[in-house]
Every structure is written in C-alpha cells, then in structure tokens.
Amino acid sequence: MNIKRAILFTPLFPSRFEGMPIGLLKLGTYLNSAEIETNIIDLTSQSANRLPSNDKLNSIIDDELKEIVNPNETFIGISITSPSLLEGLDLANKIREKIKECVIGIGGVHLRYEKNFLNNPMTSSIDFAYHGNALPYEKIFSYLKGNLDPFNIPNFSFKRDGKITYTYDCVIKDDFLLPNFNLLTEPSIYTYGILKARVESRKVTTAQLSTSYGCHHSCRFCTICNSKPPNIQPFNEMISNFEKLKYQGIDFIFFDDPTFTDDEEHTELLLNALTKIKFNWACQTRIDKVNPKLIETMKKAGCQYIYYGIESGDKIIKEFLNKPLENNLIIENIKSTLQNGITPSLSFIFGVPIENESSRINSYELIKEIDKIGIYNNGISPLISPSFYAVYPGSNAEKDLLSSNTNLDYFNSYSREKIWTSFDDGYGAFHYKDEMYAKLVLDEFNDVINKCKYVKAIT
Ligand code: SF4
To answer: For domain 5-166, is the CATH number 3.60.110.10?
Structure first.
C-alpha cells in the first residue's frame, strides 16, 4: 500500500452539537503535512438536526469520489461515535460499492470499548479500526505508506488473509496538535448550538481547541470520567498555539476542554494569557467551578459564552447523577454570568431512570427561577438545551446497565425516531425511557420555555 490521497468523513447524522470533528482534523493536519493530500468532509455538522437522507448521501458521495484518480492509492477514514455507528457503516458500504480498491479505516472515541468490532459481518467494507482515544499519527502514516506492519500499531484491529487481528492495548496520551482549520470546507457551519447568531461574521476566523483533556469528576452519564487525572497542555505550548492562531487571523476560540476551570493553577495561567493575546472565546465548565470573581476575570479575558451542565433542579436526581450542584449556587453564578455580559448556555437532562413527575417539576421550577433573574443592560438571555439520559460506552451508566445483565449493543438501531433529534444525546442512543415519554417531556419543556420571559431554548 502506498497512500497518496486521504478523504476523511464523519457520517450524515442528526447531531445537535455543531462542533468541529477535531480527531479527524488533527489526523488530516498530520497527513497533509506529511504529504498525503487530505480532504475533510464533515457530513455530521452539515446534517445537524436533520434525519439522514439516502439520496443526499448518495449524491455527496458521488461528488466527493469523482475526483479520485487512483483508487488503490486512496484512504477513506470515517469517524464515528456509538450513536452514529450505523450511519458510519452505511457510508463505508456505499463508498466500497463505488471504489472497490480503496483502503477504508474507521475510528472514534467509543470504539475504545469494542475491540471485536471488525468481527461483526456488518463491518465487511472496513479494512481496519482504531480503538484508542488519541491517535499515534506517525505510525498510522507509516502504515498507510506501506512502511509499517500493522502489528506495531497499538489499539488497532485489521483484516489480513480473511483473519481479524487485534494488536495490543496502549494508553496514548492526548496530544495538543494545533489543527489546520483551513482543511474544513465549510467553517461557517460550526455553531456549537450556541453561536448561531455569529455565523455570518465568524467564517474561517473561529478555532476549536483544548488545553486539557479529562476531568476530576465522575458524573454518572459521562465518558470523560475515565480520563483521570486530566492531561494539561504545557504553558509554553499553549502560548505558542495562541500566537499562531492570532497570526492566522483567528479571533474566536471555542474551548472544548471538558471542564475549563477545573484546575485552578491552569485556569489562572490560561486567563492571563488570553487577557494579553485577546481573543473572544466560549468554553464549557461546571457551575460549581466558577464564582463571581472568576467570572469577572473570564469576561476581562474575552469570554462570551459559558456552557454549564446544570442537569436537574431535583436533589435526588442530582445525587443519582453524582453531580450534586446546589440550586442557590446555580442561580448566583448564572446571575453573575449575565451581569458580566457572558451568555450562559445551560443543559438539563431528562429521562433519568429514577425520574418521575415530581423530579421533572423541580427542573421546570429551576428554569422558572433562572427566568426570574431577568436581563441586565447588555440584553443577554440564558439559553437552555434539553438533553436525554443516554448510556454511552465507558460511562458509569453503562456499568449500571451491565449490572442489570443488559449489554450495550453497538450495532442496535437505538432511538431513531424523529422526536429524539429534539434532545442532546437523544438520537441513536440507549435510553431507559421510550419515545412517548420523550414526547411528554418535550411538550412540558416547551410549555415552560414558552411561558418564560427571558430564557430561550436552543433548538
Ligand atoms: S459531565 Fe463534566 S464535570 Fe461531569 S465528569 Fe463529565 S466533564 Fe466532568
């Protein structure tokens, strides 16, 4: 094999989080710099909030593949999560039908927990799978150039002579490679659900990056809780990346550090650097990891949006989720966020296994309390997004499922009805509650939001 051209895809999938495909982007950045000409086709963000259509997929594939001159020198990479697995396989099959000789590889965060993936007959179009979190770029590159035996790539499974081999486990430290954002063909589609109003003005001037991976906390539904302690980017590297972005004309950064203000020392260094280099930026963090003084400092450093996972207004649900945030603290910090001219974007989880009418009402009451804060002179309102309790591979929620003798079946067509596209983590995931329940919650939620004066829903 001697790959000279790579096309990296995400599948057509109705995700509500319109963020950049960072894993693919980093792989593309590496391959491109190593002289494998690479394109990134991010169908997930192009199809956000819409159910996938076969006609659309066929025409996109035809368009993208018609430029391929040497199929046997072409690598097709597909990044999936467990909810988008079926759409990823569909994409792989359609590509294989059209170009038999290309190499097709698949990867994505949830494949870490499914080492037998290639043993399933539904994966027959795929040549190899990567089962790690961070990628060993150099090894993958050498393999694609025919210079490395795949037995030497960790967390890797491949087919050879009709046999499927899994190599060996190895924890690869997350890297902080600065992506080449120019590889994205449509930069204006990345709105993260919260930046829609800025789309026209952002274009190629937005970057998405992390300065840390992992989190100290262990919320029941979250897969990031397995990455402890968090891996933090060295300060000099961080500054150098910021300077490069500034030089490239980037003026807005979406930080996808799981908990931006988790580590006090890192937060202080980061905010000092951002104050000097001057970007506008958005981040996500826990609401109990900020306070009025810190929020004021964040604003001075350019912060425009903070995404807080509030999850619930109900004490018992919060304890179940292992995220016991006090309602008083939630209100105080949202107030402070608004006062400082920062948009608070808030997520509430419904469909928790022990949820009942009373616990839902407690969440709605908290939303009404947030609405009562009102708005300040800056006119900024809180945004709220409804999420649904989903079980993902590697989370403590999956351990609960296993203890009830139920396996998470990666190849199952979970929650494919349209109603689920109205919730974050709704479509394509295992839920304890059914479609009718989702409809009930959505009606109740919309009713509460429609009666609010200031709070707006993220649709
Ligand atoms: S939900 Fe947030 S705070 Fe909780 S474990 Fe995940 S990243 Fe950490």
So the answer is: no
**Atom of ligand 1 at shortest range from CA of 221:** 1
**Tokens 């590697």 sit at which residue?**
394
User: In what helix (H) or strand (E) does residue 30 lie, and over which residues does it extend?
Assistant: helix 22-33
- Give the CA distances from residue 38 to residues 44, 84, 144, 182, 422, in Å, rounded to whole numbers and listed in that order: 18, 23, 13, 11, 34
The residue among 97, 56, 59 whose CA lies nearest residue 76 is: 97
287 lines ligand 1 (CB under 6 A): no
Q: Determine if ligand 1 sits within 6 Å of the CB of residue 216.
A: no
Please give the sequence-ordered ranges of beta strands (E in DSSP) within 242-351, or none if there are none: 252-255, 280-285, 303-311, 343-350
- What is the identity of the amino acid at 6? A
Question: b or e along 431-459 (b: 16 or more beta carbons within 10 Å of the residue's beta carbon)?
Answer: bbbeeebbeebbebbeebbeebeebebbe
Domain covering 191-457: architecture: Alpha-Beta Horseshoe (3.80)
Q: Please list the residues that pair with 430 across neighbouring strands.
A: 391
Pocket of ligand 1 contains residue 222 by CB under 6 Å: yes
Contact (Cβ atoms closer than 8 angstroms) between residue 320 and residue 220: yes
From ligand 1's centre to the CA of 293, what distance in Å?
22
The overall average pLDDT reported for the chain is: 92
Quick one: which atom of ligand 1 is closest to the CA of 259? Answer: 7
* 309 Cβ below 6 A of ligand 1: yes
According to DSSP, the residues that pair with 311 across neighbouring strands are 348
Residue 170 CA to residue 154 CA, distance in Å, equals 6
Least Cα distance to 170 among 151, 192, 185 occurs for: 151
Structure ipTM over 0.90, yes or no: yes
Q: Which atom of ligand 1 is nearest to the CA of 222?
A: 6
Distances (CA, A) of 287 to 6, 176, 260, 432: 41, 25, 11, 27
Band the pLDDT of 199: cuts 50, 70, 90: very low
> Given its phi and psi angles, is residue 352 left (phi above 0), alpha (psi -120 to 50 degrees) or beta?
beta
- Report pLDDT digits (tens) over 126-161: 999 999 888 999 999 999 999 999 999 999 999 998
> With 0-12 CB in 10 A as exposed, 13-18 as middle and 19+ as buried, what is 6?
buried
Beta strands in 150-261 (DSSP E): 156-160, 163-166, 206-209, 212-213, 231-232, 252-255
pLDDT of residue 109: 84
Cα separation, 442 vs 450, in Å, equals 12
CA distance 399 to 10: 28
Can you give the residue ranges of every domain in the chain? 5-166, 191-457
Q: Whose CA is nearest to atom 4 of ligand 1?
A: 219
